[in-house]
Specification:
The complex is a heterodimer of chains A (110) and B (117). Chain A is an all-beta fold and 110 residues long. Chain A is built from no helices and 11 strands. In chain A, strands 2, 4, 5, 9, 10 and 11 form a 6-stranded mixed beta sheet that branches. Chain A is globular and about 40 Å long. Chain B starts with a strand and ends with a strand. In chain B, strands 2, 4, 5, 6, 9, 10 and 11 form a 7-stranded mixed beta sheet that branches. A 4-stranded antiparallel beta sheet of chain B has the order 1-3-8-7, with no helix packed on it. In chain B, a hairpin with a 2-residue loop joins strand 5 (42-51) and strand 6 (54-57). Classes of the chains: A mainly beta (110), B mainly beta (117).
Chain lengths: 110, 117
């Protein structure tokens, strides 16, 4: 069964606004990863946060991790139309593969 | 270009036919996985490999076979295609164990869109 679940399923915002999406998971993890998928393309690794980290930044991305609540959030600041994509969180499955959630579909309109 | 190459990009099969989806990477990655992506279902793990000669089942392995004779290649075989196998298939690879502390995350191929009629 899938470990991570993203929320919301879909999000629509205007350019310049911030986008926040959340991920909840069920079991203990070593790390949590976020990926982006543009329509019709493969997934691209965005950012990884380890279980002993609480917050991580990469450009306009900010990821937080709360292991006590088994949840993570991805914040995209000052969104652009090019950020329109689906975003997935992923956690380790026995260490040798990843479990992906169902994703959040983000639409950024000009 | 370093990366994960999947072939073919599109395929239509008739029910009962067999075929092999190819996946090759040139990054010397030990860890490789196959996922299928269906609308509203996210990505589900079919099979994975931790190195040449070693494979294991994922969440939805029925109807699929894999082998890993070399580090570079990880083909996925559909034994007798069924309409329920209509999906987009992704291959992914990683140098480090993807779920462990040392990982840098997966590199994904661009996918194979399979339709079974």
């Amino acid at each position: 069964s899938q470990q991570g679940e993203e929320d919301p399923q879909a999000l629509s915002i205007q350019e310049g606004e911030n986008a926040t999406m959340n991920c909840s998971y069920k079991t203990s993890i070593n790390n949590l990863q976020w990926y982006r998928q543009n329509s019709g393309r493969g997934l691209v690794h965005l950012i990884l946060i380890r279980s002993n980290e609480r917050e991580k930044h990469s450009g306009r991305l900010r990821v937080t991790l709360d292991t006590s609540k088994k949840s993570s959030s991805l914040l995209i600041t000052a969104s652009r139309a090019a950020d329109t994509a689906s975003y997935f969180c992923a956690t380790g499955l026995s260490g040798y593969a990843l479990n992906f959630g169902k994703g959040t579909s983000l639409l950024v309109t000009p | 270009n370093a990366g994960v190459t999947q072939t073919p990009k599109f395929q239509v099969l008739k029910t009962g036919q067999s075929m092999t989806l190819q996946c090759a990477q040139d990054m010397n990655h030990e860890y490789m996985s196959w996922y299928r992506q269906d609308p509203g279902m996210g990505l589900r793990l079919i099979h994975y490999s931790v190195g040449a000669g070693i494979t294991d089942q994922g969440e939805v392995p029925n109807g699929y076979n894999v082998s890993r004779s070399t580090t570079e290649d990880f083909p996925l075989r559909l034994l007798s295609a069924a309409p329920s196998q209509t999906s987009v298939y992704f291959c992914a690879s990683s140098y480090h164990p993807p779920g462990q502390e040392s990982t840098r995350g997966y590199t994904f191929g661009s996918g194979t869109r399979l339709t079974v009629v």
